[in-house]
Amino acid sequence: MIKQPRLVGSIAPSSTRLANLIAREALSVIEKSGGLVVEIGPGTGCITRALLAHGVASENLVCVELDPVLHQYMTEQFPEIHTILGDAADVETLLSGRCTEVAVVVSGVPLKNLPLNKADVIIHSCCDMLKPYGKFIQFTYGISPPAITPKLTISRKFVGFVLLNLPPAFVWSFTKME
User: Fold this and answer.
1) What are phi and psi for residue 24, nearest 5 degrees?
2) pTM attached to this predicted model
């Protein structure tokens, strides 16, 4: 992981508290409208595990991982989940036809570590495929949310701060308005 710290974004896996906060936020949408949950950048699966524990059905969860080693790990740890090896910037293509079902995108991608244009492509791709009132959930290690360009009609909400995470994390939710 340390070989490419900008792609991993953290020195340790997400804590259970962070994962549970994100899973509860995702569930607030799934319980109302159903649909697919897409997790981009699942890493070692801490948030994946919490999503499953909070009731997201394995057939309604798709993970997209860029790193081949982490992709292999996810496939072994969660054989019941469809895990795709690929770049989150290509998520719409990678989901091929299931985009209209997406209610929530959970992002473990370190957007603030990426060039702004790359982060923008990822955010727009994810938000474009959301159902109306679907959510894009992102955690960061800085106090401010990821930059979102004004091309999107979304509402932003601060979900919470998790001190017991290494490093401490801020969780943001962006709801697609339509």
Assistant:
1) -65, -40
2) 0.91
